[in-house]
Amino acid sequence: MNRFATLLNSYFAIERNGSSIKQECIGGLTTFMAMAYVIFLVPSMLHDAGLPKEAAFTATIVVTALSTLAMGLFANFPVALAPGIGITAFFAYYVCGTMGLAWQTGLGAVFISGIVFLFLTVTRLRQLIIDSVPMDLKYAIVVGIGMFIAFIGLRNCGLIVADAATLVALGNLTDLKVLLAASGVCIIAGLMARKVSGALLLGILMVTGLGMLAGVTPAPTSLTSVAGFDFPDIAPVLLQLDIMEAVHYGLFTIIFSLTMVDLFDSIGTLIGLSRKAGLMDAKGHVPGLDKALLTDSLATMAGACLGTSTATSYIESAAGVAAGGRTGLAAVVTALLFLVSLVFAPLVALVPGFATAPALVIVGALMMQEVTHINFGDTTIAVPAFLTIAAMPLTYSITSGFGLGFISYALIKTLAGRPKEVSPVIWIVALSFAINFSLRLH
Length: 442
Prior knowledge:
Elements: H1 2-12, H2 21-35, H3 38-48, H4 53-75, E1 81-83, H5 85-98, H6 103-122, H7 125-132, H8 135-157, E2 160-163, E3 167-170, H9 176-193, H10 199-214, H11 224-227, H12 243-249, H13 252-276, H14 289-306, E4 311-313, H15 317-322, H16 328-340, H17 345-348, H18 353-367, H19 379-395, H20 398-415, H21 424-440
Antiparallel strand pairs: 1-4, 2-3
């Protein structure tokens, strides 16, 4: 056992990253608990696009497990990947819905976008883009993602709800699920204040247990009731993508949109999580990020082949990072748990959304700490940083926040008579976002 522990420590550089095997396992388990909802939500949306639901279920888990395993073993990053929720919605309800394309053609477009990602990664253009982002905007990205995570958490808690007059409003505080979720925020915060190891995971499990006691979430009736799941076949969606039809259709707008969304969603997520995990140096560089971006690119292509929409880095990995995950071992643990969920899917379903939501709120609060590093005394920085932070939760898109930040930074610096502070890469990216935003209007 000691030899195995030594091997793990050597391969993942666990001690060098200020972590331990126990800490990594807790981090991986926490990430899994925070994003386990994807194994139910993504297949449902893919089914709306026309894919067989059972096959989509298996494809989602296989893609998530394999891509996350690659991120852990190859890139040594504590980041999990899965078919993106926003991108899956775009795929299901716009590509296969509004445009009426067959899901096989849509998967072909996803595969082509993966080739574009791979080209940008191999030529190091993605790394060049990341290095060109000013430190203040990098901090703003971290804070914006935190706000986005918190917004998702508050919504899943039921503490905020949609409102026709004010867009959002306070939820029903007499609802027992809402009260349990709110108590979860306090429980996790209290445990963290006491420096209890695995506070996020313990909070999730405690709220789940309270929900079972209160009768608002089902408790397992027996061991067999959660272990008798029939393994669904992936064959109906495996290698069913139609690349030639996607090329013949001329899906420039779709491929461009998929490329922009995944490129900057993954960049934003990796920057935010790297900063939070202490993997980013003083100059904003992240050692080994090129491997993480390469893994992300290949995961997109693999997802299309296996039958899902674009696979991307998940912001819920921040929960695992906050719980102690610092190396790829955390991602490996997450991947293995997703594979196990193929057999124990009913057991995973016992953890309700209102139990995982409080962890997202806490993580969002923790990521707000980076706001103190932003130079708000300089208007040319303060306004782009603010737009980056505010747009992510308000538009429900990391990419939109990224885009508005880039565009405003370039324009404001120029109007202020400081165009030399804007690199050519910033201008290219800002123009690309402007084109992307204009395409959405047509």
